[in-house]
Amino acid sequence: MKALYFAWVRERIGKGEEQLSPPSHVGTVGELIGWLSGRGDNYAYAFENASTIRAALDRTHARHDAPIAGVREVAFFPPMTGG
Amino acid sequence: MRRIAVTADVFDAAHETQALQGGRTDVGAVVTFVGYCRDEAGTLTALELEHFPGMAEAELERIAIEAERRWPLLGLSMIHRHGLIRPGEPIVLVATASRHRAAAFAAAEFLMDFMKTDAPFWKREHRDGSAADPRSAEAWVEAKPTDDAAKARW
Fold first, then answer.
1. Which of A13, A75, B53, B101 could form a disulfide with A4 if both were Cys (CB 3.0 to 4.6 A apart)?
2. Structural domains of chain B ordered from first start
3. Residue partners of B63: CB distance under 8 A and separation at least 6
4. Do B52 and A6 touch (CB under 8 A)?
5. What's the pLDDT tens digit per position in B110-145?
6. B122 contacts in A (CB within 8 Å)?
7. What is the ipTM of this complex?
């Protein structure tokens, strides 16, 4: 699946997008965050306060318990500050 | 009429308001809100708005459809800018048209409250970086709990 990162999540990880191939036991948004956090200090830093991180699956807001099976694009970003 | 726009360009609020009313004779009320970039007592040189292209437009549309479901609107406009925005420039516009003012006022507040918490935009402040300002020259704006509270009342 394709992963997109925005704002300080993007800056901390050091890239705006990448292709991910998580192992089959990674079934939810929250588990994906946990798996990513183990990939390096940059990911661990981006996701250090995991509960504050927002996610979107195929451009729709998703909770951390949402399943990722069949999802083509996942996005991670901080709470939004537009308007 | 539903107008949704995510753009880097400055918009003309007066033109947008007039377009929404559109010379119609059934519109009794138009409420317009424009959010501007403040200079924070001279310390802020610009706001930089990052957005999630595609999802930003989709979220604005989803919020607009929900407002249309809740109130008898005759039209609405939502415009949100991205990129570098200077103090004094508009950032966001919400305009609603209805037969009576109550629906137009309520829907405009609803649209703004949801846009702030649900539309994927992120503000970064550019400051003058003077020694008197201990904050970094560029800093992401933190989300405010009051924005979540404003959304929760709906």
1. A75
2. 2-152 (3.90.1170.40)
3. B78, B111, B114, B115, B118, B119
4. yes
5. 999 999 999 999 999 998 765 555 555 679 999 988
6. 6-7, 77-78, 80-82
7. 0.96
